[in-house]
Amino acid sequence: MNLPFLVTLGTIWSKAWPFLIAILFFGVIIFIHEFGHFIFAKLFGVRVNEFALGMGPTLLKKQGKETKYALHLFPIGGYCAMEGEDEESKDERAFCNKKLWQRMIIVAAGATFNLILGVIICCFLVGTEGDYVGTRSIVRFYDTAISNSESGLQVGDEILKIDGKRVFSDYDITFLMQRNNTGKYHMVVRRDGEKVDLPAVNFNVRTGGNFSYKEDNSITDLSARMKKAGLKDGDIIVAVNGTTVEDNEALAAAIAEDRDFTVDFTVQRGEETLDVTKVKMMTVTVFDFVLLGKQKNVLNVIGGGAKYALSMSRLVYLSLFDLIRGQYGLSELAGPIGTVSVIADVAQESVATADWSSIFMIMALITINIGLFNLLPIPALDGGRLFFMFIELIFRKPIPAKYESWVHAVGMVLLLVFMAVISASDIWKWISGVGFY
User: Fold this and answer.
1) Residue 400 DSSP label
2) Could you give the 3-state DSSP secondary structure of residue 184?
3) Do domains 132-204+286-295 and 209-281 have the same CATH topology?
4) Pairing mode, if any, of strands 243-244 and 262-269?
């Protein structure tokens, strides 16, 4: 075997293995979801015709005693095909002939298993990261703090709410404070055993958070919006708002000094020097306090993991609400292709740093996301099926199977169209660096 071949093989492997890990992680999440449907279908005596992972051409298949098991090429979904699931059947073991409460459990089991997996991963993360379990209580302030000014926060305060949203864990504090870019927050704290309302707690706000840069001030990890503004990965920043920046320290200081969050950049791109003006930047709240940590034990690790999963769940639906409000564009969504790409990037970083916590955190977020999304009352999703079952529960009579099948079929078409658009946007990001919108 010659050396050039080995070098080529090594190069291919170095590019491929992160995507294989991403596909494996995605496969585990899909398997857990479909296994939830499968195991309860079997427990309640429902005939399962096929249990499959993936979509598209079949790679492997095996016929069991009554169930066919299959693995398909594209790792973007799966299914547990039960007798009488989408049509009427005279088989006494058909899904449609089981008691309503059994059918509801079977349908809800997939999303429930995803949520349980998310809690388990969060418990693992809380149990393996650091020496302490985080709390909501403030133990001290930094010397430059302004949030502890008059009518502000105090040492010992336990943060209960931020801008009307309940704080379940220390992770909520970071997320909720970054949703508000004004630097002013309405907080409710527990102080000396009593709830105290603090309508205007102030924090410093600085410009930043849109990209990373290397030692030579070359830009990396640009967001889609920054690319649309005219910047490109690899651009070397030579000036900010007309001020020359010669190193990372000067660059960070110049960006932080900006006050209107709209920055003019001068960049070196190859042989050209270009001005990219009026670039709208993100704002970042400067946290000026430290939260109390408690020594780990089994109970607070489990409790901390459950609260972490609850925080992630709330992050999912608040992000969905922000999307509906137009706070995020299509370019900031990711479908299966984009998600696999993100997991692959994080896997590479995890290997480089020997720290796998980031990839497990993303896995927890994805499985919780899938679980919650599937419970939405949308046709073709588990939540859509549960919606029809709740109607049956209320009116004591099921909707005819053919009508329900038509609704789910239309819902599936719309979901597939939406998925196609998101996937096309993911591919366009690879090609151009920006999404559709």
Assistant:
1) P
2) strand
3) yes
4) unpaired
Per-residue DSSP letters for 118-169? Answer: HHHHHHHHHHHSSSEEEEEEEEEE-TT--TTSTTS--TT-EEEEETTEE--S
Q: What is the pTM of this model?
A: 0.79
Provide the token pair at 375. 């419970």
Q: 266 has which bridge partners?
A: 239, 275
Which neighbouring-strand residues pair with 12?
A: none
Maximal C-alpha separation, the chain = 78
Contacts for 380 with CB less than 8 Å, ≥ 6 apart: 408, 409, 411, 412, 415
Can you give the residue ranges of every domain in the chain?
Answer: 16-131+297-437, 132-204+286-295, 209-281
Closest CA to 243 of 213, 271, 273, 263: 263
Instruction: Count CB-CB contacts under 10 A for residue 355.
Output: 11
**What CATH number belongs to 132-204+286-295?**
2.30.42.10
CA-CA distance, 370 to 376, in Å (whole number)? 10
Tokens representing 286 are 């400067």
In terms of pLDDT, which residue wins out, 19 or 159? 159
Strand ranges across the sheet with 272-280? 243-244, 236-240, 262-269, 272-280
What b/e sequence results for 260-285 when a residue is b if at least 16 CB atoms lie within 10 Å of its CB, and e otherwise? Answer: ebebebbbbeeeeebebeebebbbbb
Query: Counting beta carbons within 10 angstroms of the beta carbon of residue 99, is it exposed (0 to 12), middle (13 to 18) or buried (19 or more)?
Result: exposed
Instruction: Quote the CA–CA distance of 224 and 280 in Å, as a whole number.
Output: 12
In this prediction, residue 306 carries a pLDDT of 92
Residues 6+ apart with CB under 8 A from 273: 238, 266, 267
Tens digit of each residue's pLDDT (9 = 90 or more) over 41-72: 999 999 999 999 988 889 899 998 899 999 98
Predicted confidence (pLDDT) per residue in 112-154, tens digit: 999 999 999 999 999 888 888 989 999 999 988 999 887 789 9
For the domain made up of 209-281, give the CATH fold.
Answer: Pdz3 Domain (2.30.42)
416-425 pLDDT, tens digit per residue, is 787 777 767 6
